[in-house]
UniProtKB/TrEMBL annotation:
Domain spans labelled DUS-like FMN-binding: 7-301
One Pfam assignment: Dus
Domain of life: Bacteria
Gene3D superfamilies on file: Aldolase class I
Protein name (record): tRNA-dihydrouridine synthase
Name of encoding gene: dusA
Organism lineage: Bacteria, Pseudomonadati, Pseudomonadota, Gammaproteobacteria, SAR86 cluster
GO molecular function, one term: tRNA dihydrouridine synthase activity
C-alpha cells in the first residue's frame, strides 16, 4: 500500500530539497509537492516549478485552482514531468484561495469541482486524488461529507485524503489547523460506508502509537508539521511501521544531503536547502552555539565535509543509539 504513510504538502516547506532529505531518511514515505497553482505552471517556468530528483519517487504533484481547462492542462504537464499522481487541493482555507475560489472553497461547489476533476482525468492516465476537509463553514456534518464523497467518487476519484476538521473561512490559516476540534470518527464512519475507496487520514497525528492505531482503521495516514519539525521521526516510521531499520548513521545521511546542497547552482535553492538542514540539526542539538559553528564551517571551503559535523559527534551518537534500541 504505497500511501500507507504520506508526508503532507506544505507551502514553503515540502520543496524538492526537503523531499530529497525526506527520501534519504525514509524509503517508504509517499511524498507530495507544495501546492502549485495551475496558472503558475501554464504561464510560468514549469521546469523550475516541477523538476525533481528521480530518487523522490513516489512523489505526487498537488495542484491548486478552479479553472477546469487549466487544471487539465497543468495535470498533463505534471504527467510529462514524471509524477506518480496528481492531487487536487480542496482543503486549503487561506485568504488567497478564498479570493480565487479554489482550495477548500471548492467543497461548496461540487459541480465546479466535478468539472475540474473530469478535465484532469481526461487529460492524464495517472491517478487523480483529492485532499479535502470534512466540511467548510455551513457545509458540514455527516450527511454533507458522505454526499460530497459519493458525488466526487462518481467522477472516478478513488482516493481521498481527508483533514479531519472543517475549515472556517473567518479564521486565518494557522488557526484553521487547530480550530475546531478534530473529528476522526466521522472519517472512520466514512471509510466504513465506502470500503471500496482509499481513505487517508490527515490532521493532528504526531506520535508513533497513534500512527499504528490509526492504520487499523484507515488505508493510510498523512503527517505534515510533525515531519518538518522533526525529520528524524521518519527513521522511527521506517523502523516501526515498515519494519525497515536504516543501516546508515545519521551523520552519513547528513553528509549525503550536504553533498547534494553543495551541488546546487542557484543561491535561492542553496538557501532553502540549508534551512532544511538546519532544521534537522536543531532536532539533533539544542545547542545554538554548535549550530552557529556548523553554519560557519559550511562557509569555510578549507573544511572537509567529514569535519563539518564534528561538533555534533556526541549528539549524533546518542541519536543513533536511541534509534537502534
Amino acid at each position: 500500500m504505497k500511501r500507507k504513510f504520506c508526508i503532507a504538502p506544505m507551502m514553503k516547506k515540502t520543496d524538492k530539497h526537503f523531499r530529497f532529505l525526506s527520501r534519504l531518511l525514509s524509503e517508504n514515505a509517499y511524498l507530495y509537492t507544495e501546492m502549485i497553482h495551475s496558472n503558475a505552471i501554464i504561464r510560468g517556468d514549469a521546469n523550475k516549478l516541477l523538476s525533481f530528483n528521480d530518487c523522490e519517487q513516489p512523489v505526487a504533484l498537488q495542484l491548486g485552482g478552479s479553472n477546469p481547462k487549466d487544471l487539465g492542462i497543468a495535470a498533463s504537464i505534471g504527467e510529462d514531468f514524471g509524477y506518480s499522481e496528481i492531487n487536487l487541493n480542496v482543503g486549503c482555507p487561506s485568504k488567497k484561495v478564498k479570493s480565487g475560489n479554489f482550495g477548500v472553497f471548492l467543497m461548496k461547489d461540487k459541480n465546479l469541482l466535478s468539472e475540474c476533476l473530469y478535465e484532469m482525468k481526461k487529460n492524464v492516465s495517472l491517478p487523480i486524488t483529492v485532499k479535502c476537509r470534512i466540511g467548510v463553514d455551513e457545509f458540514e456534518g455527516k450527511d454533507f461529507l458522505f454526499k460530497f464523497v459519493n458525488e466526487i467518487s462518481n467522477v472516478g476519484i478513488k482516493t481521498f485524503i481527508i483533514h479531519a476538521r472543517k475549515a472556517i473561512s473567518g479564521l486565518d490559516t494557522k488557526r484553521n489547523r487547530s480550530i475546531p476540534k478534530l473529528n476522526y470518527k466521522i472519517v472512520k464512519d466514512l471509510k466504513e460506508e465506502f470500503p471500496e475507496l482509499e481513505i487517508i487520514l490527515n490532521g493532528g497525528i504526531d506520535n508513533l502509537e497513534d500512527c499504528k492505531n490509526l492504520l487499523n482503521n484507515f488505508d493510510g495516514i498523512m503527517l505534515g508539521r510533525k515531519i518538518y519539525d522533526d525529520p528524524l521521526f521518519l527513521l522511527d516510521v521506517e523502523k516501526e511501521i515498515f519494519n525497515n531499520v536504516s543501516q546508515e548513521s545519521i551523520k552519513s545521511i547528513m553528509n549525503k544531503y550536504l553533498i547534494y546542497i553543495l551541488n546546487l547552482q542557484s543561491q535561492k535553492d542553496l538557501n532553502r536547502a540549508l534551512n532544511h538542514l538546519m532544521q534537522l540539526i536543531k532536532v539533533i542539538s539544542k545547542n545554538k552555539k554548535v549550530r552557529n559553528q556548523i553554519l560557519h564551517s559550511l562557509k569555510n571551503k578549507d573544511i572537509s565535509i567529514e569535519d563539518i559535523f564534528v561538533n555534533l559527534k556526541e549528539d549524533l551518537l546518542r541519536k543513533d543509539l536511541a534509534l537502534n534500541l
